[in-house]
């Protein structure tokens, strides 16, 4: 089954996977507390604005609460910025997703995102027909296709790097790369898996 890009979050843990039929030549890179999806050196040139973006960011709220933001596009940054200004996770997700809306490509691709705290998690998506944001207590997934509403996900990994590896290895079509995040009282850990690169 092809579900496209997807986010999985639960309290203390989360992940994001790129699955792509059109742009497989992409990798995650660490840019000092931010994980960025972008094309490889040998990728065909494209003017598609949805190919490169920050997919995971570590943030700290005004009350010094560490949080991780994960998502499939340029909305990750405004979600993070709102959290840093003290917005609750629900409001940060809802306002950023509503403002940027679904992607205006040939597929009306939904935007998906999640916010992970040490004791909390919130997941959201904006599709052509809906804006959904939910607080969750167990691992929950939302994807750009097929699974475009939040539903339970069987996540077994407990650390950032194994989460990325588990998501990349999930039995879903066209895996490209993945990111993982864990959050505890000491802060946020981010990791990625580019499939052996």
Automatic annotation (TrEMBL):
It holds the Pfam family IMP_cyclohyd. Residues 2-186 form the Inosine monophosphate cyclohydrolase-like domain. Residues 27-48 are annotated as: Disordered. The keyword Hydrolase applies. Pathway: Purine metabolism; IMP biosynthesis via de novo pathway; IMP from 5-formamido-1-(5-phospho-D-ribosyl)imidazole-4-carboxamide: step 1/1. SUPFAM superfamilies: Archaeal IMP cyclohydrolase PurO (SSF75569). GO terms for biological process: 'de novo' IMP biosynthetic process. One of its GO terms (molecular function) is IMP cyclohydrolase activity. Keywords: Hydrolase, Purine biosynthesis. Signal peptide: none annotated. It catalyses: IMP + H2O = 5-formamido-1-(5-phospho-D-ribosyl)imidazole-4-carboxamide. Its EC number is 3.5.4.10. It comes from the Archaea. Catalyzes the cyclization of 5-formylamidoimidazole-4-carboxamide ribonucleotide to IMP. Belongs to the archaeal IMP cyclohydrolase family. This is IMP cyclohydrolase. It comes from Halorubrum ezzemoulense DSM 17463. The gene is purO.
């Amino acid at each position: 089954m092809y579900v496209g890009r997807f986010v999985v979050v639960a309290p203390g843990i989360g992940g994001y996977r790129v699955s792509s039929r059109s742009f497989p030549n992409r990798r995650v890179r660490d840019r000092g507390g931010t994980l960025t999806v972008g094309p490889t050196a040998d990728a065909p040139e494209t003017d598609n604005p949805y190919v490169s973006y920050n997919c995971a960011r570590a943030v700290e709220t005004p009350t010094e609460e560490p949080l991780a933001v994960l998502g499939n596009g340029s909305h990750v940054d405004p979600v993070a910025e709102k959290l840093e200004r003290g917005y609750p996770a629900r409001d940060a997700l809802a306002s950023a997703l509503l403002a940027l809306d679904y992607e205006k490509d040939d597929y009306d691709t939904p935007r998906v995102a999640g916010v992970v705290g040490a004791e909390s998690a919130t997941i959201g998506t904006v599709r052509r027909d809906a804006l959904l944001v939910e607080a969750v207590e167990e691992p929950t997934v939302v994807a750009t296709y097929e699974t475009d509403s939040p539903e339970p996900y069987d996540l077994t990994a407990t650390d950032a790097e194994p989460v990325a590896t588990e998501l990349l290895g999930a039995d879903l079509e066209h895996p490209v790369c993945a990111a993982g995040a864990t959050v505890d009282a000491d802060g946020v850990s981010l990791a990625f898996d580019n499939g052996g690169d």
